[in-house]
Amino acid sequence: MERAVSAFKEWESFYVIVGSSGAALTGLQFVVIALTADLRRSSTREIDAFATPTIIHFGAVLLLSGILTAPWHGLWTPTVLIAACGFLGLMYSILVVRRARHQTSYSLVLEDWLFHAALPALAYALLAAAALTLHGAPRPALFVVATAALLLLFIGIHNAWDTATYMVVARGPEQKNDPAKQPADATERT
Predict the structure, then answer these.
(1) How far out from the chain centre does Cα 144 lie?
(2) Is the pTM value of this prediction over 0.85?
């Protein structure tokens, strides 16, 4: 048991880096949403389907980092917490798919289904599986948890970038057709 708990120590630097990245990227996602709010109006269905899951994935990475750097004296509590992250994440992935299917302003393509549904579900399933094997094989299980954390981090990065670029690209035609969204000097020239 003591050997398994000491295995967490070996991952401390990794999770400090990954957790800090998750926290910083969460903040940046808030900034992107705030800055693009006046560019294009999004429905709550779009936000629930695309932006909120990105925050959840970054938050999961931050939570995992906290769990795996805490000074545990046994494996039971971190195992339960990692399992909860995995199983709740799987349930949330199902909810995201439902939300993505019910929003009507954007038609998802294969890449969207991959990064908004399949890969997050895979990452959360890896967490659940790792928690189930943490007592018997802590070293491989911790590599699986690290893989899931990195996967969630990169999914979040991809989806945040996708959201930001979509907002910029979608903005173009709306602003050209709406004089109220044109700068004052632009409407005077036409």
Answers:
(1) 17
(2) no
